[in-house]
Fold this protein.
Amino acid sequence: MRTLLFLFCALGVWGCYPQQHHDPKVLLAMETYAFLKGQGAALKKAASQFPAFAKEAADLQQKAQAVFGRAEKNAELFLRQQLADPQFSSFQKHIDSLINQQLRHPIEKKEYAAKFLQAVKDKIGFSPAAPLPKGLLAFAYHDAPHQEIIDGHTVKFSTKGHPKADQSVVVLPIPKSWEAQEAQMPAAVQQFTSCEGKGNEKILIVIHDLPQEYQNLALNEKSMQEMIPPQSRLIRTEPVTIDDMPGIMAEIEEILDEPQKNMKVRMLQFMAASGGKLYCVQGSIGPAAAYQNLDHQLRKYEPLFRMVAQAARIEN
């Protein structure tokens, strides 16, 4: 049983913490932070008990800094921003106490330590046989979301066969840490939400059949002003190219109707029209309180939204 505790400590160290009514993203940050603290402590335990593993454990800890260390740092910073000082201190003490409790006994066999080191190595190498813990990629790139795409941590999404795509095929990369969810908008084929579905940022894929009178729709600032609802504000537009087709990027802020009164969404819409259809990749922030300034948050995610839109391919 002690062996199992040792191998499991990096995964289960968080489990007994009294989870108050925190935001789901805060709970995910706690889980991620606890996992990484536990894994680091377990590596040190293996190295100290088995000197033959000391160099390997040190090398793994160093290699882990690129993603694991960055995730731990960002998760801690996020938690410090979201929790009061006494709350965060209490959480840290609880994690340290659990780690000390689970690692107070010696590891029963050297082979168990070897298997643990291999498991950590597989995670660092992003082996399919060792899936990453939830939240790790999300917090590794929390300070620079677009870097997740640059580093190749993406999944290819295709609308092929999707019942809401109406035989239209759009293929584009989505960050691995974003979760696919059912879109509420009728014209939206798919929605993706940041931070394993617990964030406030979304990517939507919208395919809209254009009425006959709009078959030759020209996408420009004037047409965008006519298309947006009355409670929306067009902030800026710029010409873009989507899959070699001329299109437009529009930044829009929309005040939401009931039941989300006094709430708003800020979005970037990347659009192109072809074959009687309007294709749109939308990145958004919100909903947030109407008084909140979303400029900084949108600027933070704009590079990621642009990368996704620029990589989109329309295959039908």
